């Protein structure tokens, strides 16, 4: 069924949309200039003021914001409001290096739930549904964002959080879950183990899957839909911009509609930073148009996609971007968690007595991504008792877990096991879309 949560905005004319975007952009730039010295200083150094931005295209005069700006401003340097006006903080993982910290005012949380309500309804959820959220409830944005959006729609929300597959399935059956929210790899995993645990997903009440936090292919979608009987749609977002709710698939499942009344999108050549022609692939760049606590100006996501304003059969006017599979940097996404090889390197550099000769191997076992770090150690080290080696391995795994947010497998190998051209590199053995 094709329903639109907020047709006043989602189906407004593109001319009205452009006008609204420009009005909101001017407000955002003034607000940012007045309240965030980081941006004001950079713009001033270029002799630019908000009043110099006289059209949407003029935005290009302003500098980009990048991930390292968040790290340098850790924790609150990019906030436009004092902490007393901030009522929620989210953050990426990171115990050694500085994580990315984001904050929300009461108004921001209201905006966020509105955007996630659009996501939920576009994917097929309505107020009679029971939604089970298997994203992690913690510092990351996924669970809390979708939770608020689904509640706003009037859906009954069951916050199961991650893991404990046996209980997930029991809840799914007994609570009569109709909407499942999670990472595609976890839902794929559920479809694989359910029969072994005595569950027939197709015989349950499941109807809709809202899946995100990691790249996934249409082939995975087909497989999940076939095995579970659910209609699965893609949800996209990143915490720097707001979290889930940046863009979403409608029933048409041909690109993700960007909430353009709240985010201005640009697609740029990752090398030059110049705009690419309409419909060509480039790096997605977002500017927030309504955020209070943490306005983002020309934020480079590192995600590669193309954007098209072609009208969609669903009636929404918002432009669509293609599914995101590729990045401009070496960031890995493992079970919905963003992992930078540099964070792995930082943990290893912090270990005493380990020569940092290693490689990172990413593979897929069943539906789940596995992260393995193979570290070369001297033969004398290998001569230690098995118990000592295991203690060392699990010690490193625990340090990694604290830093990365997921626990990798650590394997100690003899010197010269890792081919020279793979030292300190990532070997990604997962399937890629053609
Ligand atoms: Zn559509």
Describe this structure in words.
- This protein has 434 residues and is of the alpha/beta class.
- The chain has 2 domains: 7-329, Rossmann fold, CATH 3.40.50; 334-428, GMP Synthetase, Chain A, domain 3 (2-Layer Sandwich), CATH 3.30.300.30.
- 31% of the residues lie in helices and 23% in strands.
- Strands 4-3-5-6-7-8-9-14-13 form a 9-stranded mixed β-sheet, with helices on both faces. Strands 10-11-12-15 form a 4-stranded antiparallel β-sheet.
- A hairpin with a 7-residue loop joins strand 8 and strand 9 (256-258).
- Helix 5 crosses helix 6.
- Zinc ion is lined by residues 250, 252, 257, 312, 314, 316.
- The termini sit apart by 31 Å
CATH class of the largest domain: Alpha Beta
Side-by-side strand order of the widest sheet = 4-3-5-6-7-8-9-14-13
**Main beta-sheet strand count, sense and barrel state:** 9 strands, mixed
Examine the coordinates and then state which fold CATH places here, giving the name of the CATH topology of the largest domain: Rossmann fold
> Cα-atom Rg, whole angstroms?
23 Å
Total number of beta strands: 21
Characteristic terms for this protein:
434 residues; alpha/beta; Rossmann fold; GMP Synthetase, Chain A, domain 3; 2 domains; nine-stranded mixed beta sheet; 23% strand; globular
What's a quick, concise take on this entry?
With 434 residues, this protein is of the alpha/beta class. It has helices spanning 7-10, 14-35, 37-45, 67-72, 106-123, 142-153, 165-174, 184-193, 218-228, 341-349, 379-382, 386-404; strands at 86-91, 101-105, 130-133, 156-158, 179-182, 208-212, 231-238, 243-248, 256-258, 263-268, 282-288, 299-305, 307-308, 320-321, 326-327, 332-334, 337-339, 358-365, 368-376, 409-413, 426-428. It has 2 domains: 7-329, ANL, N-terminal domain (Rossmann fold); 334-428, 2-Layer Sandwich (GMP Synthetase, Chain A, domain 3), CATH 3.30.300.30.
């Amino acid at each position: 069924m094709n329903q639109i949560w907020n047709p006043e905005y989602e189906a407004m004319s593109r001319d009205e949309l452009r006008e609204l975007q420009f009005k909101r952009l001017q407000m955002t730039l003034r607000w940012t200039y007045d309240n965030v010295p980081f941006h004001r200083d950079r713009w001033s150094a270029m002799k630019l003021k908000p009043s110099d931005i006289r059209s949407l295209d003029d935005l290009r005069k302003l500098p980009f914001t990048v991930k390292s700006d968040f790290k340098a401003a850790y924790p609150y340097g990019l906030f436009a409001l004092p902490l007393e006006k901030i009522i929620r903080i989210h953050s990426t993982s990171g115990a050694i290096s500085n994580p990315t910290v984001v904050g929300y005012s009461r108004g921001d949380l209201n905006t966020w739930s509105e955007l996630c309500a659009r996501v939920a309804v576009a994917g097929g959820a309505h107020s009679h549904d029971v939604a089970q959220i298997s994203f992690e409830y913690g510092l990351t944005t996924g669970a809390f964002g979708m939770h608020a959006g689904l509640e706003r729609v009037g859906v009954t929300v069951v916050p199961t959080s991650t893991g404990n597959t046996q209980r997930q399935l029991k809840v799914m059956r007994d609570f009569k879950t109709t909407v499942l929210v999670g990472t595609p790899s976890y839902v794929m995993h559920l479809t694989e183990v359910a029969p072994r645990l005595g569950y027939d997903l197709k015989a349950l009440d499941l109807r809709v899957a809202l899946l995100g936090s990691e790249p996934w292919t249409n082939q995975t979608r087909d497989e999940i839909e076939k095995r579970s009987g659910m209609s699965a749609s893609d949800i996209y977002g990143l915490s720097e911009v707001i979290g889930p709710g940046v863009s979403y698939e409608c029933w048409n499942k041909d690109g993700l509609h960007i909430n353009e009344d709240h985010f201005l999108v640009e697609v740029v050549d990752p090398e030059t930073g110049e705009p690419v022609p309409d419909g060509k692939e480039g790096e997605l760049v977002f500017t927030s148009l309504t955020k209070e606590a943490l306005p983002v100006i020309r934020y480079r996501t590192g995600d590669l996609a193309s954007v098209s304003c072609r009208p969609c059969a669903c009636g929404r006017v918002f432009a669509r971007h293609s599914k995101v599979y590729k990045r401009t940097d070496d960031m890995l996404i493992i079970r919905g968690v963003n992992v930078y090889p540099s964070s792995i390197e930082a943990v290893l550099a912090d270990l005493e007595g380990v020569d940092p000769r290693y490689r990172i191997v990413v593979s897929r076992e069943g539906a789940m991504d596995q992260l393995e770090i193979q570290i070369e150690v001297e033969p004398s080290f290998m001569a230690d008792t098995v118990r000592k080696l295991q203690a060392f391995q699990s010690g490193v795994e625990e340090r990694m877990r604290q830093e990365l947010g997921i626990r990798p497998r650590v394997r100690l190998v003899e010197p010269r096991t890792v081919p020279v051209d793979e030292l300190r590199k990532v070997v990604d053995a997962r399937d890629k879309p053609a």
